[in-house]
Design goal:
Length: 356
Amino acid sequence: MRILHLHKDFEPLRGGGGTARHIHGLAKALVADGHAVRVIAPDAEATGASYESVVATATGFAPHVAWADVVHVHGARSKYAVAGAIRAKLAGKPFFYTPHAFYEPHGPANAAFKAVWDRTAEKFLLEKGAQTILLTDYWRGWLKARGISDARTTIIPNCIMEADLIVPPRGADVQRLAGRPALLTVGRLDPVKRVGDIIKALARPGLAQAQLHVVGKGPQREELEALAGSLGVTDRVTFHGFVDDAGVAAMVAGADAFVLASEQEGLPTVLLEALIAHLPVVCTRIPGNLAITSVGGVETTYPVGDIDALAALLARVADERIGDEQVAALKRHFTWEHRARDIAALYTAALGTPKR
């Protein structure tokens, strides 16, 4: 099969986010299984991987859609995804849709816009596509609550390529991060990630020696730095900016725990990667996180925004252990080596006959 993926941004190796990494891993697994894969985006990164990565704006979709047997569009409430799906529909090519996550509105005007969009553009993607691939069952209920049919949906979780995982250093090669406990969080510095909650927790009793290491870029950095200053914990919060995969693996090895305080997530591979590296985690009790922690048997979760509960978990998380059986279960459920063929089977079914 010739498979075209498109997303509004695609920089999986330069900190482009979970959706880009999702597509990158899936594309590699599909190629390994004998398919031809092309990824297009306005900023498509040259990854050097086994699939094609091509820069294309919405006005340049035609030759790529003509090349493909199937088109897979990614990203909720994305004009780029809708344009790609319309082009596929006009060309008579089946298209698939993975929204990843629907974020809640911020303010009345934004809420009105999203309500109209969900009942028009999203409705088109969900009802006219060959299949919508949701990351967790939670999103089916979310769609139903908004009067949008979930009849053409299937659940296949966000995954990672096990072969791509960088094994963290061990023994004498480990450089411990500062702090007792040394806490690590990785992600875009955006209000939805609620990194500020972790900073606030540092000021709670029992965490006087804790230090937070923040990896990622984003518009909220200055606000978070000011928050740390106002709470008197500036010297215990380090903003590392962008760190490549090898650097993050080294930080994982040197940390006592990984923290994810987000109020919304699709299915965060960064949480999954930490657990597979046997690093204890503390995370919010939201559907995207729970889809992972339930498989891994992890109980260190707390309600979004509950700083006291977060602080209590951080004070004891260094004593937690992630065992080999937990890691094995996560790998079976959340790696492309096991799950890419589930998606390829959907493509094949939409075409009617297998293509290679």
